[in-house]
UniProtKB/TrEMBL annotation:
Its cofactor is FAD. It comes from Nonomuraea helvata. GO terms for molecular function: monooxygenase activity. Keywords: FAD, Flavoprotein, Monooxygenase, Oxidoreductase. Residues 2-359 form the FAD-binding domain. The keyword Oxidoreductase applies. It holds the Pfam family Rng_hyd_C. The lineage of its organism: Bacteria, Bacillati, Actinomycetota, Actinomycetes, Streptosporangiales. It comes from the Bacteria. InterPro entries: FAD-bd, FAD/NAD-bd_sf, RIFMO-like. Signal peptide: none annotated. This is FAD-dependent monooxygenase.
Length: 509
């Protein structure tokens, strides 16, 4: 019998496998595709998830340099957010990594940690009892087998078989009036990038490079890689099929050019990327927004796109789902999970999914054509001139606006929030970032009191919670109890409060 079977070997399933291995659990990952997906999909990670990857030592492996730094700007609904105005309160971090490259990094990391990833395996059905889940899967040799596991996690995308077989509802809406088109193109003498995140297009002039809204739709030209910029259009159509050969027909460069001309009013001939570079021509007819009504059914869990889909930062959400679930499954498998710990996964992460669904729908509404939306954008721009509103929207976009219930909390303490970055000097005299102490995905008691009371309190939990004493000039509290997923479960200096938090999250010592 397996401890955990993960269905889906994309970024969510691979990261979950890595987290489980760090927790001492051996998962089995079943992936239907025989090879990693090299298609061009997401082009970056934004917000809190970037710091999560830094905590696991994956930020630099994905192309980042040093420690994540707050981004000076971002966008909401195609409107610029001057995040530099927030100073140290800016929660937005960016990591411009293509999804295929992220998946490669996670695949390599899973292999380093010894995860069992089996490609070419298709899950056909599942049934569960009180103590196990039986999975019928067709192996890479074409033979059907029944595999038994104590827990099953569906990371198998928006059309999740696991979710459907578990009977988990997936309510939501589909807006069939929006057609999105994307293409990777090569350099052109018809446009050039200008300072300040702008682009000059022949026959049109200088416009914002990220989002340019017209009466006919939205145009974006993103240059993560200047040798193969990404072109996007979004068109709102009463009859989407009128300008599209249909969702089943292949996307063509000519169709992309025609869409750009409809939105911008000028013809922009598009050339393919340089030879050997990945290519992409993609059309999405309609925008789907759905959220599972629950994230667990008995011994079956869902994560990532299997739990939530939207025209937004679903990959950011998915990786944090995996980090939240992994340590809780490990606790249950090792026999020390307190009552309700596994249920807290759905409670905590579904609240985050609700927020993402809300802000992606709001962003779509702000980019729609029409005079009424233009007026709304003018009002919204005035609201963003106020720092408190800018801070709220920034936290919303970063995924940093949901506070988990940690029980008794002091308003000024960071309990319930993702732990802030802290520079430390540990007892051995080394200067370290807090992220460096979180590489092993273990719970951490960061003790900055200089006394022995907290050490004695935490002693019975030493096999579950690592205790580190250090000094810090920028610490938000005398001591922090940090869960494996990076959230602060307790903050303060009171040994009784620490004991209560240790008991709540890690069972009696």
């Amino acid at each position: 019998m397996f401890d955990v079977i993960v269905v889906g070997g994309g970024p969510t399933g691979l990261f979950l496998a890595c987290e489980l291995r760090l927790a001492g659990i051996q998962p089995l990952v079943l992936e239907r595709r025989p090879e990693p997906d090299r298609a061009d999909k997401a082009h970056g990670l934004a917000g809190q998830v970037v710091r999560l990857l830094d905590n696991r030592g994956l930020f630099e492996r994905c192309g980042g340099r040093g420690a994540p730094a707050p981004a000076p700007g971002f966008f909401f609904g195609g409107m610029p957010l001057p995040l530099h105005a927030l100073g140290t309160e800016n929660p937005m971090h960016l990591l411009p990594v293509n999804q295929r490259d992220l998946e490669q990094v996670l695949n390599e990391r899973a292999a380093e940690l010894g995860a069992d990833v089996r490609r070419g395996w298709e899950v056909l059905s599942l049934t569960q009892t009180d103590d196990r889940v039986d999975v019928v899967a067709r192996g890479s040799d074409g033979v059907e087998r029944t595999l038994t596991t104590r827990y099953l996690v569906g990371c198998d995308g928006g059309h999740s078989l696991v979710r459907k077989q578990a009977g988990i509802a997936f309510p939501g809406i589909s807006d069939d009036h929006v057609v999105d088109r994307s293409a990777l193109i090569g350099p052109s003498d018809r446009f050039r990038f200008a300072p300040g995140g702008r682009v000059v297009i022949e026959g049109l002039g200088e416009i914002p490079a990220h989002f340019h809204r017209t009466d006919r739709g939205v145009f974006t030209l993103l240059a993560h890689d200047p040798e193969r910029p990404l072109v996007n259009t979004a068109e709102w159509e009463d009859h989407p099929a009128g300008n599209s050969p249909g969702p089943g027909a292949p996307m063509t460069a000519a169709e992309m050019e025609e869409s750009v001309e409809r939105v911008l009013g000028v013809r922009l001939p598009l050339s393919p990327p340089p030879e050997g570079a990945p290519t992409m021509l993609r059309r999405l007819c309609g925008r789907n927004s759905r959220l599972a009504d629950r994230y667990r059914d008995g011994r079956v869990f869902i994560a990532g796109d299997a739990a939530q889909v939207s025209h937004g930062p679903t990959l950011n959400l998915a990786l944090q789902d995996a980090a939240n679930l992994a340590w809780k499954l490990a606790a249950a498998l090792r026999g020390w999970a307190p009552e309700g710990l596994l249920d807290s996964y759905g409670t905590e992460r579904r609240a985050c999914g609700e927020r993402v669904l809300m802000h992606t729908r709001a962003a779509t509404a702000l980019m729609a054509p029409g005079a009424d939306v233009t007026a709304l954008r003018l009002l919204f721009a005035e609201l963003l001139d106020r720092t408190e509103n800018l801070r709220l929207v920034a936290a919303l976009m970063a995924g940093a606006d949901v506070r988990y219930d940690m029980g008794e909390e002091h308003p000024a303490a960071p309990t319930g929030w993702f732990v802030p970055p802290i520079s430390l000097t540990t007892d051995d005299g080394h200067e370290r970032r807090l992220a460096e102490l979180l590489r092993d995905a273990r719970a951490l008691l960061l003790d900055l009191t200089g006394g022995n009371d907290l050490a004695a309190t935490a002693e019975p939990w030493k096999n579950r919670v690592r205790h580190v004493t250090a000094t810090a000039g920028d610490a938000p509290a005398p001591a922090l109890l940090i869960r494996p997923d990076g959230y602060v479960a307790w903050a303060g200096a009171d040994p009784d409060g620490l004991k209560a938090a240790l008991t709540r999250w890690f069972s009696p010592g």
